[in-house]
Design a protein that fits this description.
Layout lengths: L28 E2 L1 E3 L2 E3 L3 E6 L6 E7 L2 H20 L2 H17 L1 H12 L3 H22 L3 H4 L4 E4 L2 E5 L5 H14 L3 E5 L6 H12 L7 E3 L4 H9 L5 E5 L2 H11 L5 E5 L5 E4 L5 H13 L11 E5 H15 L20 H16 L3 E4 L14 E4 L6 H4 L6 E7 L2 H9 L3 E2 L1 E5 L3 H10 L4 E4 L14 E2 L2 E2 L12 E4 L1
Parallel strand pairs: 1-5, 7-8, 7-10, 8-9, 10-11, 12-13, 12-18, 13-16, 15-16, 18-19
Antiparallel strand pairs: 2-3, 4-5, 6-22, 11-21, 14-15, 17-20
Helix pairs in contact: 1-8, 2-4, 3-4, 4-6, 10-11
The structure holds NADPH dihydro-nicotinamide-adenine-dinucleotide phosphate (NDP).
The site of NADPH dihydro-nicotinamide-adenine-dinucleotide phosphate has 26 residues, from helix 8, helix 9 and helix 12.
Length: 485
């Protein structure tokens, strides 16, 4: 009897599929956007493409005087903006959403050029979701009472908003859309390495004809952020970024009448039980940790596997990781793009070195990486102990740490054994188990049999050192209004 030949999996060869960039016209230099117009400043710094290390254009760096001018402009614009009928305010927010849609292709390309993320993600996730947030909060503008249990509310006033580099336009939308819908005026500080889409948003705000000073955009480094936080003319700060800077901001706002929301880091547990659909879980694990190179605050970076299926999941995951395409962010087939900056690459490398030194077993996908730019190949650690730094610290890169558990109680205990509490994933066939585990987890967002799904109607935010306050949904209105008792 002859043995049936083993079927080999189809191996696809991909031809390059680069997104065209010849229609993108970046200015030679971008100024600040203050009081409805472009404002020059003293210092300009290049923003670079992390996939090539080539400078893209020059960006204004806001000084303390610029921060002051932006706060003054926002303060002056406040009475007029508040006096507008809510329905009219909503129309402006709606107009921003429509203009983002109109310029979606350009915004997606610029996001990938400036930040290194795959075009597939900026085109299909970041930009559509940014527009969706403006659409969603446009609808709330004249219904605020319904979103706040029928209470009478008024805007906080002038809000300072500081965003990170991992989802630049999307984080700007998360912050600006509810602030504007609630009648606040805003100063947005984008991250130093990814200011470009925020500056294109400044053009959109002008095109939407928003009254001068309602939105101000001031690129710059951490000192501009620190000056904004400490400015006495600010009524509320919304921050997304590292826990370290979050703590500094909390100290700086303590004892002042300043509202504060902090959306900080995470070390989220992605838990796979033995009754889960394993192939589906493997796809979810990949999406959980390799989406956006793992530069995701809620990344499923701690993979908790039930012992009886651990070996199978690890082997299937490793095989799947070998199929990820790492490289040119503008290639439509790319799964994992460039690391956002040299500094972030160094942070990832230092933590991965620590993982090896502490005795965990490292597997890194072998793939050809471009010679220039900042790259880190997808990596998995097994034999990880809960005390290892790679199980404790946020790596914020394409690195997953695998731990195991025997019982449901142990899974919950290990998942909660973290200073963070932003998100979690549960993979199981049993609805009752998913609900019981979700109730016991200390995490703001919990996904069942999926991961990294976002929607403007759904609140997002953390427990413990992952911060406080919620963005998204009706809960996302609350930080932007004062409730009159
Ligand atoms: P930061 O927290 O430093 O940056 C976030 C934003 O805050 C940026 O706009 C930054 O400006 C600004 N900022 C920096 N210092 C201050 C300050 N003292 N006061 C006010 N604003 C300030 O994050 P990093 O870019 O340094 O990343 C470090 C680590 O933080 C990452 O490795 C990751 O672990 C974590 N992180 C988590 C994020 C999340 O979504 N939870 C997002 C980004 C990072 P500038 O860009 O000029 O420094």
């Amino acid at each position: 009897m002859t043995a049936t030949p083993q079927r080999t999996a189809l191996e696809w060869e991909y031809s390059p599929a680069p997104e065209a960039t010849d229609h993108i016209r970046l200015a030679e230099r971008y100024d600040l956007f203050v009081g409805g117009t472009q404002r020059e400043t003293e210092a300009y710094e290049p923003t670079i493409n992390p996939a090539t290390e080539e400078p893209l254009t020059q960006i204004a760096q806001a000084s303390e005087a610029d921060v002051d001018a932006a706060v003054t402009a926002a303060r002056e614009a406040l009475p007029g903006w508040q006096a507008l009928p809510a329905l009219e305010r909503g129309k402006y927010v709606f107009r921003i959403a429509r203009l983002i849609q109109e310029r979606a292709r350009e915004l997606a390309i610029v996001e990938s050029l400036d930040g290194g993320k795959p075009i597939r993600e900026s085109r299909d996730v970041d930009i559509p979701l940014a527009a969706a947030h403006f659409f969603y909060y446009a609808g709330w503008a004249d219904k605020l009472g319904y979103g706040t249990a029928g209470r009478t509310v008024e805007p906080m006033g002038v809000v300072g908003q500081i965003v990170p580099w991992n989802f630049p336009l999307l984080m700007a939308a998360w912050k600006l859309a509810p602030a504007l819908a609630c009648g606040n005026t805003a100063i947005l500080k984008p991250a130093e390495t990814t200011p470009l889409t925020a500056l294109l948003l400044a053009e959109i705000v002008q095109e939407a004809d928003l009254p001068a000073g309602v939105v101000n955009i001031i690129p710059g480094d951490g000192t501009a952020g620190a000056a904004l936080v400490r400015h006495p003319g600010i009524d509320k700060i919304a921050f997304t970024g590292s826990t370290e800077v979050g703590k500094d901001i909390q100290a700086a706002t303590a004892g002042r009448d300043v509202g504060l929301t902090l959306e900080l880091g995470g070390k989220s547990a992605n838990i796979v039980f033995d009754d889960a659909a394993i192939d589906q879980a493997v796809e979810g694990i990949v999406n959980g940790i390799f989406f956006n190179q793992g530069h995701v605050c809620c990344a499923g970076s701690r993979l908790l596997l039930q012992e009886s299926v651990a070996e199978e999941v690890v082997e299937k995951l490793w095989r799947r990781m070998g199929k990820l395409r790492v490289g040119d962010p503008l290639d439509k087939n790319t799964d994992v793009g460039a690391i956002n900056s040299a500094a972030q690459l160094q942070r990832i490398e230092a933590l991965v070195d620590a993982g090896e030194r502490e005795g965990a077993t490292r597997r890194t996908v072998s793939c050809a990486l471009p010679e220039r730019g900042f790259w880190f190949a997808p990596t998995m650690f097994t034999d990880v102990a809960p005390a290892h730094r790679i199980a404790v610290d946020e790596i914020f890169g394409p690195v997953v740490s695998v731990l195991t558990f025997r019982t449901q109680a142990e899974a919950i205990e290990k998942a909660n054994a973290s200073a963070y509490g932003l998100a979690a994933g549960i993979w199981t066939d049993k609805g009752s188990r998913a609900l019981a585990v979700a109730r016991a987890l200390k995490a703001g967002t919990i996904w069942q049999n999926t991961y990294n799904q976002f929607d403007p109607t759904s609140p997002f935010g953390g427990y413990k050192e992952s911060g406080f306050g919620r963005e998204g949904g009706a809960s996302g209105l609350r930080p932007y209004v004062r409730v009159r008792e």
